[in-house]
Specification:
Strand content of chain B: 35-45%
Largest interface: A-B, 30 and 25 residues
Strand content of chain A: 35-45%
Distance between the termini of chain A: 34 Å
CATH class of the largest domain in chain A: Mainly Beta
Strand order of the largest sheet of chain B: 1-2-3
Number of strands of chain A: 23
Radius of gyration of chain B: 11 Å
Strand order of the largest sheet of chain A: 2-3-6-11-8-9-12
Number of helices of chain B: 1
Structural class of chain A: mainly beta
CATH topology of the largest domain in chain A: Jelly Rolls
Oligomer: heterodimer
Low-confidence stretches of chain B: none
Helix content of chain A: under 10%
Mean pLDDT of chain A: 94
Chain lengths: ~350, ~60
């Protein structure tokens, strides 16, 4: 409580954590994904991205019920499944959290009066490692990295980054695109490690100075890495990890990703039949999206259903999406729909889903 | 910090003869990408088009 008051002039008592889903409690996509490493993306815990380039290393990423008592029941677990000990220059693997510019204006970076940022997080690993925590200002290509160590027990790290006034006229762009990256460097080649770690102050980015001195998560298939309780707040002090109702976290996450699921026979959307073979309609989103989202579905799992008839399962086409809904079209292989009648988009299998991705 | 994506095909989808989305196979998955520059998939499609490594086919 004393610490919370210390930052009271710059960080609100509630909502001070700029990180969304820092407790790793929401994993709408999947609980666990194996074989990650060939391409970057969002796989398990919402808002937490694996970014990778050129490495032969592979990992399993899981939302795991092994968080530190009193902080979170859950954490991200990375399990190395394919080692990579021949590290080419351009390789890297990081866990990232990306921030919209309009959500971090309180930092005031890039102009007079810029504030310090304090990052805190709980981490453990299968052994002692040194990894890097970086703030990368994507709007102005500036960065700073601090090293941290792991043990086999949960440890909370508290890292304060200095204010960055930069040239005094380069604030974060106040829009819905990514302005700031929180990057945990877990594996990197000489492109990112051959220089001197830039650790004292924000500076224009030199890639060689971004991850100097880190160990490699991919050094052995026995390696595991665990992360939770991630908090980033304005000011010089790490306050107690901010607990949040799950419904609040879920709604924050759905600004970036939303998944609607249906088992066999369940409906997922309504519309009308524009012919005896086509149904179309919209899928409303539960939460307005950051940007018009990319739409995908689980496969040939849905059919249009109208009075007295159900079409065969077919691929859904999403021909447009807005911040609030996506338009669906389904062309059935048979022609038994009631032209002009109401149409339901119905799942023909268990576990079918539609997803809207507006991630950064 | 460029989002590296493997995009194997891309074709416009049109409604009433107006392009409304791009259907593309991105990292092995069929995606319907809206024409919003703030969408990271569309931004990457545009980047690859500008680089000359991707062409968006016209709508059927």
């Amino acid at each position: 409580m004393t610490r919370a008051r210390t930052n009271a002039n710059v960080s609100p008592a509630v909502g001070r954590n700029l990180v969304i889903n820092g407790a790793m409690n929401v994993a709408a996509r999947n609980a666990s994904v194996a074989g990650i490493g060939a391409s970057s993306g969002y796989f398990t815990c919402d808002r937490w991205r694996i970014d990778t380039s050129a490495s032969a290393g592979r990992l399993t990423m899981s939302q795991t019920a092994d968080g530190p008592n009193g902080i979170s029941a859950n954490c991200i677990k990375l399990d190395c499944t394919t080692a990579d000990t021949s590290i080419a220059a351009g390789e890297n693997m990081t866990i990232q959290h990306r921030f919209e510019g309009q959500n971090i204006q309180r930092i005031g970076s890039g102009v007079a009066g810029a504030k310090q940022i304090t990052l805190s997080f709980y981490v453990k690993a299968s052994a002692a490692f040194t990894f890097g925590a970086e703030l990368f200002n994507g709007d102005n290509n500036r960065q700073i990295t601090k090293l941290f160590d792991t043990t086999t027990d949960w440890v909370r790290h508290e890292i304060t980054f200095p204010a960055d006034v930069d040239d005094g006229s380069s604030p974060f762009v106040d829009d819905n695109t990514v302005a700031l990256f929180l990057v945990f460097h877990l594996h990197a080649g000489s492109t990112f490690t051959s220089g001197t770690l830039n650790t004292a102050a924000f500076a224009d980015t030199t890639n060689a100075n971004r991850a100097a001195g880190i160990d490699s998560f991919y050094s052995n298939t026995a390696n595991n890495f665990f992360l939770t309780g991630v908090q980033m707040e304005v000011g010089p002090v790490a306050t107690e990890f901010e607990q949040e109702d799950i419904s609040v976290t879920e709604n924050k996450c759905m600004r970036y990703y939303e998944k609607q699921s249906a088992d066999n026979g369940e409906y997922i959307a309504v519309g009308y039949n524009e012919s005896t073979g086509n149904g179309r309609g919209i899928i409303p989103f539960k939460v307005r999206k950051r940007a018009a989202p990319t739409m995908t579905d689980s496969g040939t799992h849905f059919a249009a259903l109208s009075t007295g008839s159900t079409g065969d399962a077919a691929d859904v086409t999403f021909d447009a999406a807005t911040l609030d809904n996506a338009r669906w079209i389904l062309t059935n292989s048979n022609t038994t729909l009631v032209d002009g009648g109401a149409s339901l988009l119905v799942s023909k299998v268990d576990g079918a889903f539609v997803q809207a991705d507006a991630e950064l | 910090m460029i989002n590296s994506m493997t995009i194997l095909s891309a074709q416009y989808i049109a409604s009433d003869e107006i392009n409304t989305a791009v259907k593309a196979t991105i990292d092995g998955q069929i995606m319907f990408v809206p024409l919003d520059p703030a969408n990271r998939h569309y931004a990457e499609i545009l980047r690859q088009v500008d680089a000359g490594t991707l062409t968006i086919a016209a709508a059927d």
